[in-house]
Amino acid sequence: MANPLIKICGLSTPESIASAAAAGASHVGLVHYAPSPRHVEIAQAAQLRRAVPPGVKAVLLVVNMAPDALAQAVAAIRPDVVQFHGQESPQECAAFRAASGLEVWKAKGIKTPADLAEAQAYAGALDRLLYDAPAGKLPGGQGIALDWSLLAGYRHRIPWGLAGGLNADNVAEAIRQTKAPLVDTSSGVESAPGIKDVDRIKAFCQAARAIQS
Ligand SMILES: O=C(O)c1ccccc1N[C@@H]1O[C@H](COP(=O)(O)O)[C@@H](O)[C@H]1O
């Protein structure tokens, strides 16, 4: 199995972006969602985006954002990828993808086999589906894992990734069970909500790459 891509999300300082890149992350995420402890304003996100080194993709995470506001945010930040993490429909994702020309991901909360089957309706509308635990108080960033056994052996209709409660201690097992081609973490590499920890980022990336089959 090839090494999975690694996304470290919820970064809010140039130093944490540099740490994630140095540790081997393929993607770094900026959260623009006011209720989140990882929220960054547009101007700050645009500055942080300039700190993302070549070869690492910048992901802008948004939740149910109005199309005009999203277009303005994208124009200012210039992300490589937009990750929708709310109730955005396949039609909305497809329309944004066609209009922006950007790579588009959509996170879906998965609790049952039916949820997983329903998520495949996004095939054709996206570049990647991201499976997460179902929304709680926040739509994501909750540190809660989904039941990985749901994904074991599943025939996905679209490129995908695994999010939700991943950390250095469990990511290897999550990859072993699910064969995830991309793993995504936020709260699992923090010392407190919104505060990224360089050593945890390093340990996560090492553990994600250590798996062989
Ligand atoms: O990180 C947040 O605060 C957040 C807020 C709103 C939507 C999504 C958010 N985070 C994303 O959720 C998944 C799982 O996060 P975790 O590893 O369980 O903390 C991931 O894609 C985060 O980027």
From TrEMBL:
Pfam families per record: PRAI
Pathway: Amino-acid biosynthesis; L-tryptophan biosynthesis; L-tryptophan from chorismate: step 3/5
N-(5'phosphoribosyl) anthranilate isomerase (PRAI) domain: residues covered: 6-206
Superkingdom of origin: Bacteria
GO molecular function: phosphoribosylanthranilate isomerase activity
Catalyzed reaction equations: N-(5-phospho-beta-D-ribosyl)anthranilate = 1-(2-carboxyphenylamino)-1-deoxy-D-ribulose 5-phosphate
EC identifiers of the protein: 5.3.1.24
CDD domains attached to this UniProt entry: PRAI (cd00405)
UniProt keywords, alphabetically: Amino-acid biosynthesis, Aromatic amino acid biosynthesis, Isomerase, Tryptophan biosynthesis
Listed InterPro entries: Aldolase_TIM, PRAI_dom, RibuloseP-bd_barrel, TrpF_fam
Keyword field contains 4Fe-4S: no
Coiled-coil regions listed: none
Family membership noted in the UniProt record: Belongs to the TrpF family.
Protein name: N-(5'-phosphoribosyl)anthranilate isomerase
Species, as recorded: Alteraurantiacibacter lauratis
Gene that specifies this protein: trpF
